[in-house]
Amino acid sequence: MFNGLHAAIEGTRAALASIRAHAMRSALTTLGIVIGVAAVITVVAIMEGLSSGIDSQLDDLGSDMVTLRAITSQEQEMLGFSNKLSYEDFLVLKAKVKDVEDMSASMQAFSFGSTVSYGRQTVQTQVIGTDSGYQKVIKVYPQQGRFIRSTDDDRRRRVVFIGESTRKKLKLPENPIGEFISLSGEWFRIIGVAEERGSLFGFDQDNYIIAPFSTMASLAGSRVTENIDIMFRPAAGANLDSIQAQIRQILRKRHHLSGDDKDDFEFITAKKTKESFAAITNWVTLVAGGVVGISLLVGGIGVMNIMLVSVTERTREIGINKALGATPNFIMLQFLVEALVLSLFGGIIGLLLGWGLAAFLSMLVPSMPAALVPGWAIALSFGFTTAIGVIFGLMPAVKAANLNPIDALRYE
Q: What are the TM regions of this chain, as residue ranges (predicted)?
């Protein structure tokens, strides 16, 4: 045990001395490992940060919210068909579906946004037509004023509830309640300003205008009201599968779908969104893994090369050690430890470089969540670098251990 510990200490000392003596050569040797580890740490840190940010956003929105949306297959699109959910579908579901706490319908009043003006200020913003239930389903609350009410919808009042970014871009007063803005040439009175939600992936979540559904329908026409999204929240203790089965049965009957026809709508949940993003994350990590594999292979070859050079340079030293009683195992362990030190040195530099690069990119891109390096990524990186040191350091170590002491002492 003492000999093994002594060999490890001597190997570490020799490796550090070799790195100091040949700093440039050591840096170039470990470059492949540095690049590989830095690449995987950067990608993983950014993706973990994004994943954490999305989870937080979905938690704020509510994990129990379900969105019902029309879907059109590629075959139908090629034939010129487009499946839609109508406002009548929403009214039927709202009347017949049980165990639903809140249900709301929303439409994008203008496909590419709309021009909104206040004084000399003009901006493009998202315009949503919806009802009073939207507030509870989406959990959007006013920091000033109020949200739209059922009476606003019944009487087609020209009132709007705006996001904080829209207020700032239009340079409205701090308290804009009662002010009038022009929406596509029509005047609307502001009744409320929403609490800020911030940005996600550079998308401003506070740049929008919400108006009563009936008001937007009268301005945009039936082509818009025939393509809506339906959002709902199950009642406490209700079974979501049972609710979805009710909705599926009602809509299939209304849309005249036979038993073999696929649904022309889909349910989007927070869980499904998380799974979709997790699939993307896994693919990105897999691609990064391929890059890392190539880089680490190159780095491993570099480590093996430098260790073979080290064996050649220290041939006489090996002969002297063997003449003084050093065993082949002692010599092999010494060179294995030296290869490990080189590999771990590259791994540590790569880890720090990747972490720093991920943090820099997070600060560089507006509203991107902070980079997060999980413990498993650090452990995996060091595991890879350790394996590289052992695998590619084994051949030089065996060569050193098998040197004939007499030939080694005669080597010039």
A: 27-47, 283-309, 330-355, 375-395
Tokens describing residue 262: 């696929």
116 forms bridges with which residues in the sheet?
Answer: 123, 183
The residue written with tokens 């840096």 in the block is: 27
Pairing, β 121-130 against β 208-212: parallel
Please, is 282 exposed, middle or buried when counting C-beta atoms within 10 Å of its C-beta (0-12, 13-18, 19+)? Answer: exposed
Is the pLDDT at 26 greater than 90? The verdict is no
Angle at 169 between CA 163 and CA 173, to 5 degrees: 80
CB atoms closer than 10 angstroms to residue 117: 15
Helices 2-21 and 328-364: crossing angle in degrees, nearest 10, is 50
Which structure tokens are listed for 324? 């003084």
Give the whole-angstrom CA distance, residue 131 versus residue 126.
16
How high is the mean pLDDT of the chain?
Answer: 80
Taking CA atoms, 117 is separated from 194, 195, 341, in Å, by 19, 21, 65
CB 143 within 8 A of CB 197: no
- The residues facing 211 across adjacent strands are 129
Tokens 């954490």 -> residue: 52
Q: How far is the C-alpha of 292 from the C-alpha of 40, rounded, in Å?
A: 7
pTM of the model: 0.64
CA dist 7 and 253 (Å) reads: 79
CA neighbor of 234 nearest in space, from 137, 150, 141: 137
Residue 260: burial class (beta carbons within 10 Å; 0-12, 13-18, 19+): exposed
Element counts in the chain: helices (H) and strands (E): 16, 13
Neighbours of 381 (CB within 10 A): 25
> Which residue type is seen at 122?
T
Q: Is the pLDDT of residue 223 over 60?
A: no
pLDDT at 63: 62
Closest of 324, 297, 285 to residue 409, by C-alpha: 324
* Beta strand ranges found along 184-244 (DSSP E): 186-194, 199-200, 203-204, 208-212, 229-234
> Do 325 and 52 contact (CB within 8 A), yes or no?
no
